[in-house]
Structures are given as C-alpha cells and as structure tokens.
Amino acid sequence: MTEQKDKTRFSIVIPVIDESETIRPLLESLRQQARIEQCQIIVVDGDPNGSTLQVIDDPAVTQLTSARGRGLQMNRGAEEARGDILVFLHVDTRLPPGSLSLIDRTLEDPRYVAGAFNLQIASARPVLKLIARTANLRSRVTRVPYGDQAIFIDRDYFVRMGRFREIPIMEEVDLLRRIRRNGDHICILREAVLTSPRRWEAEGPLYTTLRNQLLILLFGLGIKPEKLAQLYRSTGT
Questions:
Q1: Is residue 220 assigned to a domain?
Q2: Considering only CA atoms, which of 7, 5, 87 is closest in space to residue 43?
Q3: What is the pLDDT of residues 84-121, one digit of tens each?
Q4: Domain holding 15: CATH number?
Q5: Which residues contact 162 (CB under 8 A, 6 or more apart)?
Q6: Number of domains observed in the structure of the chain
C-alpha cells in the first residue's frame, strides 16, 4: 500500500461538459509532463450519457459521470482521488513544463496549502495579453486566482475545508476565499499555464472580462450564487 501511495502523488481532476473535441488534446499534453507516472488523471463528465468520455481511449484515465455543475463534478473527482495533491484543471488549460515538480515543491513548503499558476492566453491579440497581465496582478494582490490558472491543493486540507460548495457558479472563488479567511496561504507561481482564448473570442474580450469581474464583485457583496448564475446565463451567448 505504501508503494502505491508514493507512486500516485497527484490526482488531476478535469470537469467537462460537451468537450469531445478538446479532451484528447489535453490528455496528450498531460502525457508529455515529467512525473506523469505519478499522476492519476480523472475526467468527470457532467453529461449523464458520458459524451466526452466516449472519445477517451486511454484505460489509465479514470472516467466518471456526475450531475452537471463544476463544483459537483470536481468534488466527484476528488472522491476518487488517490493522490496526496489535487490539481483542478480546466479542459482549455495546458500546464507548463515541469509543473508537477513545481507543485510538489510548493506544497512541501509548510507556508502553503494551495496554489495556482500565472495565466497566459494563447493569443497574440494585445487586449488578451492585457487581460492576462491584469488577471495575474489581481491574483497576486488578492491571492484568489481564477479556476483556469490550474488550482492545486493538499487533498487532506481540501477535505478539512469542506471541499467545493455545490453552488452553480463561483465555486472556486468561494473555496479560495474560505482558505484566506482561515488564515492559510495560497502561492501564485510565476510559471504560466496556457489557456485557450475561445471564451473571450466567443463573447468579446472586454465584455467577458467586465461581466466576470461584476459577478465576482456581486458574489463578494453577498449576492446568492443562484442569482449570479441566472445573470451569467442571461448575459452569455
């Protein structure tokens, strides 16, 4: 049993919904990571029919379904995690080279219980470069990174903190704020993940950014996540 625990150091949890075209490139990118042999990769499909899971041909990938909702899906993946460290990875995000060693070293530091990476958007558009720089500055000041910055956390600590609240939106912001209120520390690594620009391109970079910042502000003011989810849906494409 000790050998298995040592081998499975990381559990990478990937929540998906209707991502049959994007999941395989992500899995291929993960296979290029150093120390990937110490990883358990968990894909949690919010489609009860498992439409995204149907295109995964790697038997080493743990494939789960759950009710739809990122918090629900990530909690479901965490339930099946064998690793000491949980990495919550969006399907649009690519980890930087050597990321697993970086994560390991960070959480070996007793000052930190969780962390994330800087953000880089895979686009040459100046406005998206500015958005990434602003997001990085914000996360360094607040120590509350965005979910697409690949949040990682000690698994036992995650359980003690009550996991993600199963709310329709802001589940990652909520967890990170609870960590801050608990007096614990989140490390923002200088190395950057690379994330797809597709959501900014679909709705417009400035509109998407301003809407998301408004939602975060309203959440901080105590507006219920259910109301925020309605606002998000009514203003999306």
A1: no
A2: 87
A3: 999 999 999 999 999 999 999 999 999 999 999 999 99
A4: 3.90.550.10
A5: 178
A6: 1
Q: What is the pLDDT of residue 56?
A: 97
Query: How far is it, in rounded angstroms, from Cα 60 to Cα 5?
Result: 16
Assess if residue 213 is contained within a domain: no
Give first-to-last CA distance, the chain, whole Å.
49
Euclidean distance between CA atoms 220 and 197, whole angstroms: 26
Sheet holding 10-16, edge to edge: 62-65, 39-45, 10-16, 85-88, 151-154, 112-121, 185-195, 93-94
In a domain, 177, yes or no: yes
At 161-185, the pLDDT tens digits run 999 999 999 999 999 999 999 999 9
For the cut 60, the answer to whether the pLDDT of residue 5 exceeds it is no
Place of tokens 């209707």: 18
Q: According to the model, what pLDDT value does residue 4 have?
A: 42
Give me the torsion for CA of 25, 27, 32, 37, rounded to 10°. -170
User: Residues of the chain with pLDDT > 90: what percent?
Assistant: 94
What would the DSSP string read from start to end of 74-100?
HHHHHHT--SSEEEE--TTEEPPTTHH
pLDDT of residue 131: 95
Asked if residue 45 is part of any domain, the answer here is: yes
> Which two three-digit tokens encode residue 132?
């990434």
The answer on pLDDT for 6 being more than 80 is no
Domain that holds residue 29: 2-196
Residues 6+ apart with CB under 8 A from 218: 228, 231
Residue in 55, 53, 16, 60 with CA at minimum distance from that of residue 38: 60
